[in-house]
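[Q] Does anyone have a clean structure-token version of this?
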Amino acid sequence: MFTGAISARFAVQCCGIVLASLVSAGCAYRYLPTIDHPMSQAVRPKEAALDCEQLDLAILKVDTVRWVIRDDGGKLETGEERGSRYAANVFVIPLSLAIRHPGYIGEQGSAVLDAADRRILGLLRLKRDRGCPPRETSEHGMTDLQMLEALEPLIPEKGELDRQAFDRRTSLLDRLRPPVSAP
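[A] Here you go.
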């Protein structure tokens, strides 16, 4: 009896150590939203009537939301990473409940970031289709419409991308805004 109680306590302590390790590993890159980020809408038919200036403004607005998400630690996750997170939660959730500190490994803003990226892509397509003039970006030697060409294969309608493709997409969209001129 006595050794059983010690073994149970030891098992709970070990589970606590494992949980703490998993949680601290998950905290290495943490998504901590400062606000409740809105899920960007897909481009709607009424937006086809926007003129070039209004399209640039709409792109800037979505890019602002995207920047807040990125600043809060948001990142895109691959299907494999999402599956690993789900699998880890199979262990983390029961362990966290066992030590009376409920927790789980949450998504890192991937859904809202992906929605913002897709809206930007849709708005850039409208801009191209309307024949609007391109705008300079912070990516040296690349306009927003040239960036659109580079982004289209990186934001497929269906299918999964690998980490390298997500990183390239993120890198490009992080430099969508025109460079800030010195005062």
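[Q] Thanks! Anything notable?
[A] The CA atoms of residues 139 and 175 lie 6 Å apart.
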